Every structure is written in C-alpha cells, then in structure tokens.
Amino acid sequence: MEQTEDQSAALEFLARRDSYDPAPESEPAHLATHGSHVFLVGDRAYKLKRAVSFPYMDYGTLERRKRFTEAELELNRRTAPDLYLGIRRLTRAADGGLAFDGEGETIEYVLEMRRFAEETLLDRMAESGTLTPALIERAAERIRAFHESAESLSLDRAPGAGSAGLRTVLEENFEEFKAQPHYFAPEDVAAYTRDVWSAFERVAPLLDRRVAEGQAKHCHGDLHLRNICLIDGEPTLFDGIEFNPLFACIDVLYDLAYFLSDLINRGRADLANLAFNRYFVDGGFEGLACLPLFISTRSAVRAKIMVSSAEVQDETSARAELLTQSRLSFAAAAEQIADVSPRLIGIGGFSGSGKSTLARALAARLRPAPGAVHLRSDIIRKQLFGYPPTTPLPPEAYRPDISAQVYALMLERAGTALKAGYPAIMDAVNDRPADREAMELLAASLGVRFDGFWLDLPPEIMANRIARRQEDASDATESVMLDQVAHGHGPLGSWAEIDASGSPDSAQDAVFALLPTGH
Q: Given 16, 36, 396, 509, which residue has the most CB atoms within 10 angstroms?
C-alpha cells in the first residue's frame, strides 16, 4: 500500500466532537479499513477515502477521491437511498481551521451516511443465529430486483464479465495459490486448477452469450452478508464497489454467487438454497450452467482473503481461526466445481403430507451448490394468476385445464434446469398417473436419473398439519385433502412409498437411504 497524501488534519477534525453540529454526546468512533476511514457520530456515519494507491484501487489524489466518492453515492443509492445521504466538503478557512462546507479551499470529500446498528448486519445475524428463512428469501428478492433494474453493459464497459473477465480472475487466483504453497498444497492446487479450466471451457461460450443477452451489469461486486443490513426492517444492499469495474461490472450471477457462497461457507446451505430458489422463482434457468464455477470462484477468493487477513493478525488464536476458514473455503471451492450429473426427483402426496418440507430439505443437500431447483406447483399456480405466494386463489384457479398448465410449466422449467446441469425437484400432489409418467419420460429424454417418492400417512395426520399451517402457499383445506384421498393415486409404478407419518427428519432419512451416493 502506498500512502500518497497527508490526511492527518482531516482525520483530526473528524475525530473531534466539536466538529459536528450538533455535537454528539460522546467522541466519534473511528473505524479504519484498507480503503477508508469511517467516523460514527450519533445517528450518522462519515466516510473518508484514504489517500492510498493499490493496483486495483487508486484513491491517490483529491480529484480521484472526489470522483469515487460521487460514484459511491450514485451507485449505492440504487439499493440504499435512505442510507446514502450526500457528500460533505471539508474546507480550510483563512485561519487554517477546518469546517464542513465552508467558503475556503476543499481539502477532502466525505460521504455522509445514515448510521445503523451493527446487529442489523446479516453477518452478525448469521453468527447470532437470528438469520431467518423469511429474511433470506426477502434479501434474495431485493437482489433480484436490483439486478433486473440495473443497466445492461456492453463488453467494453464490463471488463469483469464474459469469458475474458472470468479468465482474469481465475488466473490471478491460481498465481496466488501457487505463490503460497505453505498455505495451499501444490497437489491440491493442481487438481483444482485442472477442474476449473475444464469447467471454464464448457461454459465459456455461455459466459459470452450472457453479455450479448444483457446479463452484464454494474452490479454490487461485494455482495456478502456483511454488506447487507436491515433498514426499517428491509434487507438493504450497501457498500457496493465503485472503484474498479473489473470487480463490479460483471455477470449478475457472479454477483449473486458471492451471496450464496457466503451462506454456504457459514454452514447455511439450507438458506443458500432458499435464496437460490427465491431468486429464480420465475424461472430463467438458462444461465445456471455457469453458476457452479461462479460459486467455486467466490469460495476460492475467500480462501485467499482469509490467508491475507491471517497474516496481519497478532493474536495466535485469531490467526489460526482465519487459516482454518481459508482451508475450509478452498476445500469448498474444490467440491463446488466437481462435475455432477443432474437428476430429476418427483415428490407426491396428498395435501398436508409434508411434500414441500421434504423437497426443501432435499434441495439443500443435492449437488452442485447451492442445490436443486425446487419447483412447487402451489407457487407456480399463484404465478400464473399474478398472486403473491400466500394469497389464496379463487376456486376457478383449480380447474383441470389450469392444473394442466401448471404441470406443463413445471416440466418445462425442470427440463431447462436439467439441461443446465442442475437437479430439479417437482413438488406437487402428483396423484394422476399421467403426470407421474410425464416426469419419467422427461428424465429419460434427457438421459438423467429419475426418482419418485410418494408420501404415505393417515388422513388425520394430514388434517392436523393443514390446520397448523400459517403463511403457506398451499390453499388446500381438509375437505380438499379428503377428496384427494377418496380419489386415490392409482398404480405408483416405480415410485417409492415413504412412511411420512413420523417426523420430517425420518422421512428425509428414508428418502436419502434410497438415493444413490453422490447426490
């Protein structure tokens, strides 16, 4: 790191209570990173870019700090308009004293932000165990909305996108791994390098095609849990990268991959799969083939960062923990890039049998990361009518012709996911033999394995489960379930019957006992 200019006067000014109007009750808290100084003052935060020059980030002159502070404000207001308030000038008066927005010469530019509580950061919530499925799904919705609204970029404006952009990242990773054999075993690096380039060659045309299709955008670029907080109860993306287009002007799925890999590396594969399925709730699976490589690359980058962080630690235990995290991240990166054959799984059962609970659990445990595409008929039916998932549909939405549309759309989406290399789970009542046969025919036509599971349990248990439902996508009542039972399901053929009368865990164990290894 090269310190290019003396900022001591600005730092001394920002560290004093009397510099602010009104003055805070206590002295400002000062947080320093490699790229900025942040002063926490009452309900505000003031961010000053450090006068430093790195190969990847250059704030070395006042003009550059001004330009990047303005860019940070503009870009982050896309996702956090209530958090990014404006830019304040630090000016020098004739007597040499400093002030905010005075008449004299501007010596620095400071970003003024709304302050938020540290415990509202999603990484803190993950550590404390307060990160809920509903919150993660809402965060995924916010990420998707941000990606959809962002401007598409041509390749010359998106150096981090396409095959050339990802190749740059991969080559840098491998150079750093090879330069640190005491942290990354050469034989492991060689195996990982081989697998990554094999995957890269398979998806390189897709990466370039996605740029042409408008999927290269100025994204967040640093979308891990620490850069998402709750503002007025809503997950809010902040601190997106403005200083280097190689990091931020990328494929939207590479942006999403950081969020997913962070959850996975924190041991929350279940939440990563929920986020994944919420992001793709409307389909659009054509780009999925590049997602395992994106996720693996994000995990590999994390492995490097953990080593860099460990090397500057004075405390032995902290250093050891970071190195452990690095090893785990590298191992995850290697596992995430492994070639896996896709598969189709059908889950059937009358309403209240626990189909969706089982499907969610299975989806999170299948490979590649972050797991299977979970296609739930209840959700797709609501989409056809433009209804939110938990809003009840009118009776006409359950006409046979509508149900046929639902199943056809499920099959179409499953086929797209399978062609992209991802497993798919079709979660529906599936009580008609023709629907079950259609799934098996789809799998056979694509040359993938099919497994069907029918959940069997007494009607009284299903009725009890239906009565306990809250905020669920299913509109089924006990009466609907009893009609299904009276109608029956016909010959099950190759579908395995699973006793689902016990706990959800027991049903999951029974299903996994029937699945071949390697999931």
A: 36
